[in-house]
Amino acid sequence: MHKIDIYGFADQELCAGCEGNCGDGECQPGIKQPTAKLVDEFKSLLAEQQFPGEVTFYEATEENIARHEDVKKILSMADLAPAIVLDNKLLFLGGFSPQGLLEEILKRVG
Fold first, then answer.
1. Residues facing 93 on adjacent strands
2. CA angle 34, 37, 41 (to 5 degrees)
3. Which residues are CB-contacts of 6 (< 8 A; sequence separation ≥ 6)?
């Protein structure tokens, strides 16, 4: 069973039309959504795929980011939330699209 932890700020609005590279011409401006909504959409997509694992969202407080040393180091130095961890390995930082994240997770777990 796989474990996906997402550390971020539930109300922080992220670009949901790209991979966080706003301004590169590929983004669809105006479709920012709260992190919590993107996480919920990601969870739904995983459930549709019958993904063998669980997703936990942690508000990026000092106490919560201390759960993972790499996340703690990076989020303590810069505003790169959300941080996405798969099976205790830091995968991604910053904005994400639920569909894009799903595709990357599925590639990595085979």
1. 83
2. 140
3. 35, 39, 55, 56, 57, 58, 82, 83, 84, 85
Its pTM stands at 0.87
The total number of residues shown for the chain amounts to: 110
Q: Are 48 and 61 in contact (CB under 8 A)?
A: no
Cβ atoms of 75 and 60 within 8 Å: the answer is yes
| pLDDT tens, per residue, the chain with 110 residues | 999 999 999 999 887 655 544 555 555 556 788 999 999 999 999 999 999 999 999 999 999 999 999 999 999 998 899 999 999 999 999 888 899 899 999 999 98
Structure token pair of residue 36: 């919590």
Degrees to nearest 5, angle at CA 93 with 72 and 11: 85
